[in-house]
Amino acid sequence: MKLFIYDHCPFCVKARMIFGLKNLPVRLITLLNDDETTPITMIGKKMAPILQKDDGTYMPESMDIVHYVDRLDGKPVLTGPSNPAIADWLNQTGYINKLLLPRFAHADFEEFATDSARQYFTHKKQAAIGDFAAHLANSADLIDQLEADLQRLSPLIVSAEAVNGELSDDDIHLFPTLRSLSIVAGVTLPANVEAYRNRMAERSDIPLLLDMEQ
Length: 214
Prior knowledge:
CATH class of the largest domain: Mainly Alpha
Number of domains: 2
Number of strands: 4
Helix content: 40-55%
Radius of gyration: 17 Å
Strand content: 5-15%
CATH architecture of the largest domain: Up-down Bundle
Number of helices: 10
């Protein structure tokens, strides 16, 4: 199977995770961020991730991909219960895009290999969240808010092996956000949150972004 992705994209990380957690091979193909033609040809719209199945057909939507791959062999690994508090925490921390998107725009991701691809991303995302320079200038206040929220997350993490003690959809939703945050310099994570993030990176075979830290 092939998975078409952007490396920075948390939805793409969700789809990548299930291959690592199940130790399944997949060919990762990074799309340029301004390449609209390829995804539109595949699924009729510009989005990622996109899975190309073994039969050549295409599947969009990260969680559809996750559940399809998890159940292919009849031995799913995402069998644990969900905790609504994890979804609540994620919903309450949407402001982190003000920390993440400006840093993504300056990072050495393959999807930004051309100037036009980087400019495309910057234009689209600034239209959505506002001026990147202003958000970068406000990083200290945003990091203070984030660290307080990470303290709230800490007691929700049952184990470094899985947020609720057994692998579940909550891990697929939570780890991509924590992985994205590894690009932000100066953020102190509670010890158990950091242990969970590091272990999930290992289990899913998805490196953190510490080498791009800004």
